[in-house]
Design a protein that fits this description.
Blueprint (H helix, E strand, L loop, with lengths): L10 E8 L2 H10 L6 E8 L17 E8 L10 H18 L4 E3 L3 E4 L2 E14 L2 E12 L16 H5 L5 H22 L5 H6 L7 E3 L5 E7 L5 E6 L2 E5 L10 H12 L1
Parallel strand pairs: 1-2
Antiparallel strand pairs: 2-3, 3-7, 4-5, 5-6, 6-7, 8-9, 9-10, 10-11
Helix pairs in contact: 2-4
Length: 263
């Protein structure tokens, strides 16, 4: 049986310290780098997450990488890539570290309720209604034993979860293998073919969330195109697309809502 050469990880550019793997890979993409090219770093001085947030990492303690994708799709489908990547990360954590993880829509991976991985997809070019290329960024907490104050109650690492250190290169192989498999499946059948497995690993379903227009509701499902479906009451279900609001309702906001309901 002839094996298929991996697409993701066909070329890997490993760095020590960079401002951002996203920035480095964007330059390579503009020079014609092939789909599946990967940039890794041991430390980022200007790493970023969604909505311009800074991504914190301690040198050598995280798996930091960006992947170049050139899917033949319209821009509206790009947000699905964060969902595909989230599913792949849960695969890799179980295969590479024996850790079961859950996905918080749209782009976070959690273990024991705390964030262990963040995902950022950036559309870098669009031509005639089609995507030119997308850069998918992944930051996975590996060997941290502590986090800054603002993160200590919300973040975790593989070392904290398992009680032992992990080899980043081994995890990189597991991530690239899982992402290659899931990305190929998505190209062939869309998110619909991954939907059931994604649902089975979702942390968001059943949670209180906030819709882009400020309403609170319960996340009841994810649609075949990856949109989060939120029941806001009175028989109304709202579709929330990736990149919009949809974060879990903080506990203090739940208390405010409960107090308002009493009056």
């Amino acid at each position: 049986m002839t094996s298929v050469a991996p697409l993701i990880g066909c070329r890997i550019h490993a760095h020590g310290e960079v401002s951002s793997t996203q920035t480095v890979l964007a330059a390579l993409a503009s020079e014609g780098a092939p789909e599946g090219t990967v940039v890794t770093a041991r430390h980022q001085t200007g790493g970023r997450g969604r909505r311009g947030r800074r991504w914190w990492d301690a040198p050598g303690e995280s798996l930091l990488l960006s992947i170049l994708l050139r899917p033949p799709i319209p821009p509206a489908r790009v947000p699905q890539l964060a969902l595909v990547a989230g599913l792949a990360i849960t695969d890799a954590l179980e295969a590479g570290a024996g850790v079961k993880a859950r996905i918080r829509w749209p782009n976070d991976v959690l273990v024991e309720g705390r964030k262990i991985c963040g995902i950022l997809s950036e559309t870098m070019s669009v031509d005639a209604g089609r995507v030119g290329h997308v850069i998918l960024g992944i930051g996975l907490n590996v060997n941290q034993t502590a986090f800054p104050g603002e993160l200590e109650d919300r973040a975790t690492s593989l070392r904290l979860v398992t009680g032992r250190a992990h080899e980043p290169d081994r995890l990189l192989s597991a991530v690239l293998e899982a992402l290659d498999r899931r990305y190929r499946a998505w190209l062939a059948g869309g998110f619909a073919c991954l939907r059931d497995e994604w649902r089975g690993r979702s942390r968001t379903t059943g949670e209180r969330v906030r819709t882009p227009d400020g309403r609170f509701g319960v996340a009841v499902d994810v649609a075949e195109d990856g949109a989060l479906l939120v029941d806001v009451g009175d028989g109304v279900t709202v579709r929330v697309v990736s990149g919009a609001l949809g974060e879990e309702l903080p506990e203090h906001a739940r208390e405010v809502e409960r107090d308002a309901a009493r009056h």
